[in-house]
Amino acid sequence: MPPETLTIRRPDDWHVHLRDGDMLRAVVPYTARQFARAIVMPNLSPPVIDTAAADAYRKRIVAALPESADFTPLMTCYLTDISDPADLARGFKESVFTAAKLYPANATTNSAHGVTDIARIRNVLDRMADLGMVLCVHGEVTDPEVDVFDREAVFIDRVLAPLLRELPELKVAFEHVTTEQAVQFVESSGSNVAATITPQHLHLNRNAMLVGGIRPHAYCLPVAKREKHRQALRKAATSGSPKFFLGTDSAPHTREAKESACGCAGIFNAPFALESYLTVFEAEGALDKFAGFASEHGPRFYGLPLNEGTVTLVREPSEVPSEIGGVVPFHAGEMLDWKLA
Ligand code: DOR
Ligand code: ZN
């Protein structure tokens, strides 16, 4: 008999976009309901590039939380060509920053101020390696010659592998991995290299985005790849390996911004993230691996305590609304088999 409930230690989301202003107020309750902590992406406009900006943003997030929420935002620093290692180190030591984020310039939403050449931030990366501070990586090259479906694999060869040969002790969270090459790279690297996996990349291949009509709500970056890659991700996520853990990359954009001639990249999956992941673990016969992926591997990698307390998922249908606050959520209009109690 399949179990009717699953109780796990409270989980965390190791990659989320909470935005700012009205959008922040609209979306943060969903993340705070599902997760105890989350690594908050700094790609606001303007981006969160120093300790003062991160401290101010953290306060805006806390102010936007529902009164009953028990949620801790973990802040990241958006690296630029001129990031100051001293400010970064201070922010880390004062626990304002948990990690720093590498966006290759122009790789994705609000990344125009990102890093144009990794060699330019070598002083910052040296400092981070000394501090044991995690580098969160958006792993795609931006070379216009490189096909969008190849950008992650080429990033490994051109940027990430050389970086780790030079700084073998740097802690790297390879974020939202989408390819079998990324899975293999992480598996064959040391324990200082891990990866997050989103629910959408476990559910969708590129056909799901492009066959029978173009589906803007299935579009995010890195873009979903071929089925063999999705299978590699499902295997990695459900393997029990401590190198793979939960990071939703929930990235809300309004319906109008997505359903457009030039639609924005990003999938808003926060409202039913745990339910979405759990359907994958169940289909893979790996319910016993879910707690590790959702609640243990992430904090161990980051060197943070595991959460106290538990959450329970119940085998009951969750009906995903077609729209939430002007945003179309992941799985809109579908039924999921589990419900967060
Ligand atoms: O799809 C994405 N959306 N990928 C990113 O890297 C950024 C994110 C966003 O901020 O909308
Ligand atoms: Zn992201």
Main attributes of the structure:
binds (4S)-2,6-dioxohexahydropyrimidine-4-carboxylic acid, 12 helices, 341 residues, binds zinc ion, 13 strands, three-stranded antiparallel beta sheet, globular, eight-stranded parallel beta sheet, alpha/beta, TIM Barrel
Q: Strands, helices and their partners?
A:
Blueprint: E1 5-9, E2 13-16, H1 21-34, E3 37-40, H2 51-64, E4 72-78, H3 85-93, E5 97-102, H4 122-131, E6 134-137, H5 151-166, E7 172-174, H6 180-188, E8 193-197, H7 199-203, H8 206-210, H9 227-237, E9 244-246, H10 255-258, H11 273-283, H12 290-302, E10 310-314, E11 318-319, E12 335-336, E13 339-340
Parallel strand pairs: 2-3, 3-4, 4-5, 5-6, 6-7, 7-8, 8-9
Antiparallel strand pairs: 1-10, 10-13, 11-12
Helix pairs in contact: 3-4
The structure holds (4S)-2,6-dioxohexahydropyrimidine-4-carboxylic acid (DOR) and zinc ion.
Zinc ion is lined by residues 15, 17, 41, 249, 251.
Short description:
With 341 residues, the protein is of the alpha/beta class. Helices cover 35% and strands 15% of the residues. Strand 4, helix 3 and strand 5 (97-102) form a beta-alpha-beta unit.
Structural description of this entry:
- This protein has 341 residues and is an alpha/beta fold.
- 35% of the residues lie in helices and 15% in strands.
- The chain has an eight-stranded parallel β-sheet with strand order 2-3-4-5-6-7-8-9. The protein has a three-stranded antiparallel β-sheet with strand order 1-10-13, with helices on one face. The protein has a two-stranded antiparallel ribbon with strand order 11-12.
- Helix 3 (85-93) packs parallel to helix 4.
